[in-house]
Amino acid sequence: MKKKIIIGIISVMVIIALIGVILFSIQGKENTKETFVLGMDDSFPPMGFRNENNELVGFDIDLATEVCNKLGMTLEVQTISWAAKEQELDSGNIDCIWNGFGYTEERNEAMTLSDIYIKDESIFFVKNDTGYTSQEDLKGKKIGVQSGSVQERRLDASEFVTEIGEMVSYTDYLTALMDLEAGNIDAVYMSKITGNYIMKSQNKDFKTFAAEGIGEESAGMVIAFKKGNTELKDRVEKAIAELKEEGKLKEISEKWFGEDITV
Fold first, then answer.
1. How confident is the model at residue 33 (pLDDT cuts 50, 70, 90)?
2. What are 216-234's pLDDT values in tens digits?
3. First-to-final CA distance of the chain
4. Phi, psi of 217 (to 5 degrees)
5. Which residue among 159, 195, 200, 238 is least crowded, i.e. fewest CB within 10 A of its CB?
6. Is it the case that residue 4 has pLDDT exceeding 70?
7. Cα–Cα distance between 249 and 238 in angstroms, integer?
């Protein structure tokens, strides 16, 4: 009888030990959940920016959150200097650049880019009380751009740059538009999506007109991964495709833009 009791006690202890091992294993897997590090400029509304509570919000943040939920990954948003974004990616400090990142052939050569997920274009923003109505009126004037942006590279490489007074680079477009409002520059050459969002959300009195002959226009916004990292790119694209099929992509777009502008 005592022998049976001892065997029974040992069996219970073994079962308890096995349960402990299983629980520890599950907890260990949760604690080692793969992290997805998104690099962004925190002053690029509505794609990614800080709200009045200093929280990082935006279309790209919402989309990345949904993508990570599908991939079973933990999203970590890391703010970076936009001018140093390529170095941050190459060094492995971030897994991707995901913040209104415009497609160019040059970037496609240097990085592994996702499919385009939003269409955009670059246009000029000027104060509404000026007489400027076209690019021709900006000859001899000061034009603001964001440092490290597609617009800066495109304007700097164009013939039109020789006809303007000065190209002024800013760390972000919010600062550039504030300088425009103050009269320190004459125009800002920037993303139509971002400029229109700032005008609407902050009730700014600007007007816009098209850019002409300033390099090859961006085909739209993409996500940039380190050159050769097609495995992560493919996983992210698959998740985005599923979100589009489910209607979630449309829902996020309508939240930030009032309509579905996703590709």
1. low
2. 666 789 999 999 999 999 9
3. 75
4. -65, 140
5. 159
6. no
7. 13
148: confidence class by pLDDT, cuts 50, 70, 90:
confident
Checking if the pLDDT of 13 tops 60, the result is: no
Question: Quick one: fold of 35-119+219-257?
Answer: D-Maltodextrin-Binding Protein; domain 2 (3.40.190)
Rounded CA separation 170/139 (Å): 20
**At 24, which helix (H) or strand (E)?**
helix 2-31
The count of residues in the chain is: 263
Distance CA 235, CA 220 (A): 20
Q: Rounded CA gap, 136 and 33, in Å?
A: 55
Contact at 8 Å (CB) between 102 and 221? yes
Name the pairing type of β-strands 142-146 and 187-191: parallel
Q: Give residue for tokens 């509505």.
A: 46
Residue 102 identity: G
In DSSP terms, 76 is beta-bridged to 37
* 167 neighbors 145 (Cβ within 8 angstroms): yes
Task: Tell me which CATH code domain 122-210 carries.
Answer: 3.40.190.10
Mean pLDDT of 139-161: 94
Q: Judge if 35-119+219-257 and 122-210 fold alike in CATH terms.
A: yes
Neighbours of 228 (CB within 10 A): 9
Contact 188, 162 (CB under 8 A): no
Q: Exposure of 4 by Cβ count < 10 A (0-12 exposed, 13-18 middle, 19+ buried)?
A: exposed
Q: Residue 262: pLDDT band by 50, 70, 90 thresholds?
A: very high
